[in-house]
Amino acid sequence: MKDKIFYGILIAVCVVGAAVSAALVIYTFQLYQHASIISYIANGG
Amino acid sequence: MKLAKQILAIALAAAVFAAFDIAVYNVVTKRYINPNSEGMQAKSVELSKYLPFEENSEIVKLNSSFKLTDDLPVIDGAAALYPVFSAFVNAVYPKDSVRFDGENFTPDSALHYTNTRGSYKAIVDGDADLIFCAKPSEEQLAYANEKGVELELIPIGREAFVFIVNAENPVNSLTEEQVRDIYSGKILNWSEVGGKNRLINALERNEGSGSQTRMLSFMGDKEIKRNVFAALTGSAIGFSFRYYVEGIVGNSGVKMLSINGVYPDKEHIANGEYPLSSNFYAVCRKDDKNANLRALIDWILSDEGQKIIDESGYVTLE
Question: Is the complex ipTM higher than 0.85?
Fold first, then answer.
């Protein structure tokens, strides 16, 4: 595989990975803002 | 060989992100997922399930001999008591006195629901005549004093302050002292009270809520300390009122703990054996001159009013 293609794929994987992780963190923060003690404990917290 | 290394590097990068996401989801995200509807999450209680004058409402319906037609005291209260005061309105008030727009009660409704914090503010500000709550917090009393309002608290029933843990937690009972030691940071691990070797994540509620005020009173001179490490890895303990846990939320994923070996059921609250049972109150302004307000309070303390409290799942005064 040419270096240019390899780095292109690697950067794409990192960009998509970072975007998914950021979305997960934002989603978690939104859940946290409306968290209920009872559902938190029921979920194993 | 070079190609294999390149593929390995790409796979490794993808695996690192996937591992991070899976770890975050399992350790943090899934704990906060709330199975209740948005309405329930926003209000702490599903208002539409306990509306007065609705055929499918889950409130206790009683054909009362006492009716009010005008000068209706405006009613408000705590989430844990909403099914009770909604049932009072259903029994005594005219149907057109309650106006609900599908999500909230409208300003001209005689029934409101703004929870403990909102109710104490409403009664002091003159937006409500009668609220149903646990005792006010120091901050709420200070607000009343600042506005020159004297509140009158009339006990109308009994309820238990309860501690809850995950249903799979092997601990079933704690002493009052153990609970205080957990919340003050003296006991940090469940293994110290007969449980698994896991940190204890002692949860609190927001300032001014009925249960947080009760918790501060329970702790007395001991200060509540949070263990930040336990927040991520620990197994939680929280607190609430019995009927809110059992009746309104009804979540089978949690269990209530016995305190000093006594389980918080109706029998143990009624006979006084459960140590953390306390009164809940109808609260009004001492200077409120509405004659119907006193008549309504008298009716709540009568057999009919107490029957609603009992059949709603709470404990009556006697």
Answer: yes
